[in-house]
Design a protein that fits this description.
- By secondary structure, the protein is mostly beta strands.
- It has one domain: OB fold (Dihydrolipoamide Acetyltransferase, E2P) (Beta Barrel).
- The chain is built from no helices and five strands.
- Strands 3-2-1-4-5 form a five-stranded antiparallel beta sheet, with no helix packed on it.
- A hairpin with a 4-residue loop joins β1 and β2.
- It starts with a strand and ends with a strand.
Length: 71
């Protein structure tokens, strides 16, 4: 089972649907809008959002998956 991590959205480009999460334990990870798990009308990531996620290997390196917005 993959361990959940927490972090803060460093940047997110709505037009590209992609951004960067700064991991609490250090480093950064790519995030794509399709990885966000959301129930409701506003599911887009915003700079400064606190998030919980797992890490998987993407085509260009590690990326966030199963992203849940905490605030």
């Amino acid at each position: 089972m993959k361990r959940r991590e927490t972090g803060t959205v460093k940047l997110f480009d709505k037009n590209k649907g992609a951004g960067i999460i700064k991991r609490d334990k250090g480093g950064e990870v790519y995030v794509h809008y399709s990885a966000v798990l959301c129930e409701g009308s506003d599911c887009s990531l915003k700079e400064g959002n606190r998030v919980k996620f797992t890490i998987c290997r993407g085509p260009k390196g590690p990326q966030a998956q199963s992203v849940v917005i905490l605030d």
